């Protein structure tokens, strides 16, 4: 049996009947060990930059709306990418914006992608960056990680294993996410220091007392995560730290010794896996480098078929991360 | 002709053929004057707290999934609420989480609600609180305020007139939202000081130099909004300031003299319209008090039918805001 056919018990499965839900940090540590990879495949399917084969697969059915056809192409593209690189990855990270822009058909496509990732043995981190007041935060948490009670029966959520969350609204806005995530064996990745240049505008600013906003958020993450540390030593409350900010990484890691660090921005945005060693201090699953365009679009710069170029790019990143974390 | 049948030219209409797009501040000022109201109806449709009549309207069709039936009930509920109170309002503010939790059928329901609001002559502010790196921010902006190009044709976005946005990622993450909003006559409401208790954790903290994080964001909002100030004196880049924080309002208003302030948290969350006078400094359309549960759930505390109780509650809030802003 190949690695990717090993089923990863998802949040929904974890809830069914079982009295004990395995904490996210332990689920992740086991998955990283099993797959010998920490690589996260970012899925940001721009409808004008899909693999040619996906457009072919989505062809026909001219009676359908542009949204329905584009959503079918997006789903086909993501399935092809997952098939091409799943062997080298531990998780996928679909970016919600690219599905939402296609409306209801986009949400159907997103569900299909989650299903395809799960069938390939991959964890799913929904990159939604949600954040809102408590009652709304609970609704978002149930949408992505839980389920919704209605007078017509229970509506399942997206079934993601992890969710990115924005901390601007403070602790009471994060607690409902923590509650739902912990109850279903899922994890959170709270934005501590993002990968974009604009991170200097607010996140890198010093607060009175000398701590940066990012470091302050790191303290909040540690506090929320203490009750969710598993046997692996990893907590279910992690952080997003852009791979483009290695100079911030060491101190933020010290402030969050048990957090899993999701590290987007590898490749196209300029982040280098070689600079991320501090992320792996608590163990190999302590850091999850995430790459999107540098894998999915590798054929544009490297030549060859999209599938082979993506597989090669993912193999290199996986190997690099495994070595750096060893 | 009654007020609510006057069509409000939406972003899509503004784009068609016309060389000149009317700026959001001017569109809003005209709508406030025409409707003699600054009241925003918050729509947070909890599927377990819908109006009884909505459940009846959504009945039948037992072959449908719970999600499809719940989404139908949510759409019916929102339509009933809009019919009951539209006369007293200038805009609706659907909260995305309550639609997303129902998946693809939830997005269909959201589109229906936007359509119903538009038919009632109301502006639509999508309360999504999105924020992401630039390429993703553009995708979100096009999802809510613009349209998406695909190989299968153009996919229209939600068609909202306004969008709430989270500034944690800094200026470069906000600029794509500004560009799309300005190009379509829509507005942004950037989170400056939210209505929840947790706002003290980060937003109320002082930066080195003495300015709070909220005041720093206010400076960013003013800077982004300068090029979008209309003849009304109002900019297309506004701010969210919780009605629960009137002690913060005066200073933040001084830092954002042209911003439209969206003021959620009136009623159930404890905010009082009487305390919001500073919001209206640049004119009556300078402040938009927003209430949800205190209107939609008024019948639970006041008795009577949901429709009549909601209409009464909205009438009181509208009158109060009009007086305070006079």
What does this structure look like?
The structure is a homodimer of 326-residue chains. By secondary structure, the first copy, chain A, is α/β, with parallel strands linked by helices. In chain A, 44% of the residues lie in helices and 15% in strands. The first copy, chain A, has an 8-stranded parallel beta barrel, surrounded by 7 helices. In chain A, α11 links the parallel β8 and β9. Chain A starts with 10 loop residues before the first helix and ends with a helix. The N terminus of chain A is likely disordered. At the A-B interface, α4, α5, α6, α7 and β4 of A face α4, α5, α6, α7 and β4 of B.
Please bin the fraction of helical residues of chain A: 40-55%
Task: Look at the structure and give the CATH class of chain A.
Answer: Alpha Beta
Tell me, what's the shape of chain A? globular
Quickly count the domains of chain A. Answer: 1
Give the SSE order of chain A as H and E letters: HHEHHEHHEHEEEHEHHEHEEHHH
CATH topology of chain A: TIM Barrel
Content of β-strand of chain A = 15-25%
Oligomer: homodimer
Task: Sum this structure up briefly.
The first copy, chain A, is an alpha/beta fold. Chain A has helices at 11-15, 24-35, 52-57, 66-85, 97-100, 103-119, 134-145, 171-183, 199-202, 213-225, 246-255, 293-296, 298-302, 306-324; strands spanning 40-43, 91-94, 123-130, 147-150, 153-156, 162-165, 187-193, 237-241, 261-264, 287-291.
